[in-house]
Amino acid sequence: MFFKMLKKDLKCKKGLNVILFIFITVASVLVFAGSVEIYSYLTGEKRMTKLCNISSADMMVMGSVAEDEEKTKKLEQILNDYKDVEKYYSCDMTRINSLRMDYPNIQEDESNSFFRKQTYLMKLPREYDLLYDTNDMPFSLKSGTIACPVGFSTSIGLRIGDKVRFTTSMGDIYELEVARFFKESGFTARNRIIVADEDYDTLTKDEVRKMKDYGLFIRDCNSVKVDEIFTNLKAEEIICPIYMKNDFSDDSFIMQAIVSVFVVIISAFLIAIIFMTIRFTMIADLKREEKEIGMMKALGVDSFSFRWLFAAKYIAFAVIGGTIGIAAGIPISGLVVNLFNANVILPQKYETIIIGIIAVLAIIAMMIGFSLMVMRRISKISVIDSIHGENCGERFGKGFPLFLHKRKKMSVPFFLAITDILGRFKRYIFLIIAYTLGAAIILLAYNVRNSIISKNYMKLFLYHTIDFDVRLRGDFEKEVDKRCEAEGKNIHAVINELFEENGFPAYIDTLNCSWGSLLNEKGDKVKNFDIIWGENIDKLRYRNGGRMPELENEAAMSYFTASKLGIKLGDVVTVDISEESEDGLSTDNVKRQLVITAFFDYFEAGSPEIIMGKDYRKGQEIYPKDWIGYVIDAPESQKEGIVKAMKKRFGGDAIRSWQESLKEDQMAEYDRLFALLEYVLGGAVMFVLILITYLYSTVFVTEETSEIALLKSTGFTDGSIRKWHLLRMAVLVVFSVVLAEVLFKTLGQLLMTKFMESYEVTGVNFLPEITVSFIIIPLIVLGAVLLTVALTLKSIRNIGIWKISEE
């Protein structure tokens, strides 16, 4: 009986069955891939650390120190004596000029951000920061071959087998073949090019930037401990930059987390759509089979048995679609993870299979359970219903109080659409939910990219204004360097003078940079802070409720760490700051009591900041001046023209618009990721909305066959009836899009805020682009829905008065 019912269901409404099967299969694949992506994200740090033996911090020792046996002993003695350094390893490494690597598919240009990243030649690591290839396997290299980070394939189009030419500092040229791409496990701020052991000495024999790279394994690594090691080395006149690597609050980790969140959202959306579709089609089937069900119940057939029979199609679809989802999910899950984060080592194959199968089986169980739950409607069908029909008195019921004779300016199709929606609103609730969620997801995907690749997002890095960007390139760099040397001025002052001399109303704002430590009541260091001060702090953005610090003993603090430490406005904190002595000839560590007058939003990533009062002038400038503003002092309408004129005078490589700076340089990698997410996610959601529109529209035409036939018999044309259906769907879409805009603005903003706060970032707000968010996206959704409905309405021409079976 089960298979007879299944065969009958499959023959009936083949188009709807195909759509439902596609839904369930796609959902199974997506749930499989999504569960693996989320598991990979949650366990990626631990797995990479274990497999690759990733060190806590990276210390680069210049060759002059590394070759000094006495200094090397002192350095290693300091590391051995520091109680929290559990172990350390070292390897040889040579820094080279990126432009001396000639890649086949790109023109070497120092204006390209890729070639400004520090590049190092080194042997294959064997003790720490181990490397795995794109198949998640260890590898080796033959003489004459190299291995490059997997990011090279996307950023410069490098491929396996390509020939790369390396020019030594003495002018010798070596041709090297790309044999492997590897997933970067070490410090991602640099490019590591791995060469064969036997080639390393030959390629680097004439290089002067040789160094030792130390991987430090520090217990509970934090900035305070790294700072203590640096201070101890500095006391022995050993200056070695140390970088923490166990801080996963950087941009790349956040971007991967955003992708994982979107995977969860789209999975939940598709599952909700499937459940709504199952309910809708099941209820339609039950109405069609109502008389048969009533007669069978009159004969004493148990209702629960009937549930299984009527759920046959959905059970079969769930099992078959789930099986396909498992088979397809195994390879697709790896592609999805690597697509959005190429440096992550995938879980073991058995882990992938187990996690995916559990997720898909859970979805199958939910579908079957939901189908049986919907079948409870069978219990309400009686013998009387089978004779008279469930809604025997419906035509005499009270309709929605809207009368056509009182709406003389309203067309009949529009009147029918409105009265149909308002009179049978419950019928369209699930369709409204589907359109609302779909439009909200598209808005969310687009506006994440628009909000992060923006001037406003850059304020989180203490840029108060970005009207343009300056880079020292070509003739402009030579001109600036020449004047700096001749006049004894710093770079930003010379650049500002050049702008002024050439009649450009543009200038660069800067702040002074140092460092300090927050102390507790016992005088112990609690947290390291970057200290900034200068005349331009009034241009920075502070959180509401505070005021800019004015006096020497006032300060503002980045909000995330302040809230984490329980610091409030008006609190007094003790900070240890490195300051110049009175005679300006030496430096001292000074303990200062500071009153916190304001907080500011900042992308901390483990490095919070303190802004000193405007009167403060005593700090020691340890870091180069921080450029916080690229200002064009002119009306907004004139800025684009001024940037073009500056390009003409100083060169297009030296002067760039803010859009070029963010999308092609500072945020280029993430712009590509968000663009991919935007198109893939938006396309997937639109595809789902088109399918569900086709399904609902087809069922509507089937259910309303009698009404359509009656209208045609009274003189209504096919065009008028089509207009009725199109207007009805248009009203539903417009209403849903309005709800989606509200949902995006409220729940979407709350989600974004809470998500970014979990990564030490506050003050991130959506910046919807008015034209796209309120015009283009709604029109795309509306157009896709109406086009789909128009195609399904072709069957109306075959409906005649003979279709009315009962009256």
From TrEMBL:
Ranges that cross the membrane: 253-278, 314-340, 352-374, 428-448, 673-696, 730-752, 772-793
One matching Pfam family: FtsX
Compartments reported by the entry: Cell membrane
GO annotations of cellular component type: plasma membrane
Membrane-topology annotation of the record: Multi-pass membrane protein
Source superkingdom: Bacteria
Record-annotated ABC3 transporter permease C-terminal domain positions: 265-379, 680-800
Keywords assigned by UniProt, alphabetized: Cell membrane, Lipoprotein, Membrane, Transmembrane, Transmembrane helix
Protein's name in the database: ABC-type transport system, involved in lipoprotein release, permease component
Organism: Ruminococcus flavefaciens
Taxonomic placement: Bacteria, Bacillati, Bacillota, Clostridia, Eubacteriales
